[in-house]
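pipeline/complex-builder :: batch 7 item 3
reading input block
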Amino acid sequence: MRITNLMNIDLAVRHMEENQEKLAALRQKATTGKQFQYASENPSGASKVLELRGALTTSQAYLDSAHVADNWMAATEFSLGQMLDLSTRALTLSLEGLSDTNGNSERINALGTEIENLLKSAVDVGNHTHENKYVFSGFRITTQPFSLSGNTVTYNGGHNEQIKVDIGSAQTITTNLDGETLFMPFFQALGAAATALKTVPFDSNALGAAIDQLQSSIDAMKNARGSYGTRQRQVRTAIDYLDKTQYEMKKLISYKEDVNLAEAISYMQLQQTTYQTVLEVSQRAISAANLFDYLG
Amino acid sequence: MATFSSLNVILQAMMTNQTAIQVIEHNVANASTPGYRRQQAVIVSAPPAMINNLRASGSGSIGSGSMVQKIMRYGNEFFDTRFRKENAEAKRYAITRDILQQTEMILGENTTSGLLPTLDAFFSSWQALSADPSNMALRESLRDQASMVATAFSTRATDIKRLQGDQDLTIQTRVEEVNSLAASVASLNSRISTALGMGDQPNDLMDERDRLLDRLSEITGATSHLQEDGQVIVSINGHWLVTGTQTFELQTYRDSNNLLNVQWADNPPPPVSFSPVTGELRGLFDARDGVLQDQLNRLNALATQFITQVNAQHQAGYVLNGASHAPAMFTGTDAFSIKVNDATPPPPSLSDVANIGAALTANAIGDGTNAALMAKLKDQLFMSGGTQTFNAFYSGQVASLGLAVRKADALATDRKYVADAWKTQRESESGVNLDEEAASLVKFQRSYQAAAKMITVVDDLLDRVINGMIR
């Protein structure tokens, strides 16, 4: 092929430009630490990363919800535990009341009054709040669920309302316990026991009925505690699972979009060497002497 | 007689060599002029003179020296045509790539401020609110997130629209350039055919015309056809641009989208539509009316569906601790007009975040059921006829823009390599090589020197005849 001077220069310029371009791309990879800045550099990789980031955000949202639910449930569980402690004491006192060794005044002053106090405490426990929200009043978290007048407790919360929280795309957990079904029988039993103890003459049948009522309400609370514990464990498991999947997703995102720096820098070094060679060769091609230089 | 005619022959030789040297000077001077085709003095022996033999019988012919027959111009129309075709393709895809790359950069979907992360954050805010529906801080944050979604949609729509509008200036200048190039080609046609008619070789005018044709093909993919009289006919996708000395002008007009378009200003009207198949203008139309318009349409489709579905679900909910249904979350109908409904009341709007409908039960302050349903909208298949989620739809759009950029880039690079190869071929054929010129220069210099020497010899001969023979 016939080579002209202009061709030499054009070719040198073109090669330098191409090398500069490659070098710039490698430099960007090395300095940003990312395989690509724009989807066009790797359309499938970019859309995968976008998808993963979306999934990561969603999973973070579920994780946050799960933590909120977990805290709420811990508060609920704590109150329930206290309630059961009270109930054990109430049962002991009531059974003591059945004993014939007690006189009327002991029944009334010691046992009856203590059970009344227990009822007050129990109502307080039922009115527990978590972050200023009543835990046992259904959706009406701003309404105090239980009010006591005499030995009678009235329920003011929502009826059978379940607070549900999503802790996964297909996992919903009910975080609250219905205060009405859970505590009202217990409160009524306590009230009945106190009334029976304070009634003169003492009617052991009435107290016996109150104790039966007390026993069954305690059993119901224990059962509820058991199943609630299962739910709590579900939330904890979900939190563990979400934590793990987040870690996996982050790893995957990094794998898709992050640059292996050692590799990037090696490639950059290689390209730099190539570029220097191109410069060297181009310099010779461009500045090569022609015949005119040698004519006398 | 013979001695004097020798002088003529030698003089002719000196002039011939001088012309050849002048051509070399011209070549050397233009060694790096773009589009210059090297020239060469075609030297032939001059017609012989018939003479009667003075000494013997018979007659013969005797050479009368050399002469320059013409100044030849190197060039190959085949290389020109191939180069222009590939170069037009390269420019077409390069301009598409440039516009789309700008779009990609402006949209910045791969950053945290992309539309997808914004949508994700919006739905996550709903998820957070569902777990704690009475939390006013969460409600405020949700409203902020909603307004970020609205802004993300509208800035994108406006940016794409502006990018489309930005092409108007390019189109305007290109059309003016084409018209002026066409006029120049027509005028060169006339001068070239006149010169050729007079037996001249208008080499430099032809170089100039080839340069213009290169540029014309770059912009519009115009093809040219050389005629016997030396004039070229230029046409764009079958419509004449230049024929002989006549030109057909292009003109711009605003279309129904208020974007600049191009048509032939044909006489008589009506104007004929202009549809180049390659070149910069084709690439520009492809990017603006193809990819960008498609992106905009899909963005609008997404916004419309998003507004409809979010509002429908939101209005099914109840305001905080109240018995009235929540108001619409967004106003507007597409990506341009979407806005958070936070107008000053009445009627109720999100200016009061208590109006965010997290509950699905009236008067239930702790109910976050509707918020959970709002968060779930993310997973529902609303787009593409009920086959894609919002995110999948838009992520597909991001990928399709990326692929369009990639495709245009690959084609631009490939076509440029091919065009460069043809350019090299053309340059190889018609470019100036200084070594060659130097060698030729020496050749003609020596011939010239020899001729000059001959003058001295003939002068000697004449001196003998004139001064030496008479006493």
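note: Chain A touches chain B through 55 residues (CB under 8 Å).
queue -> next item
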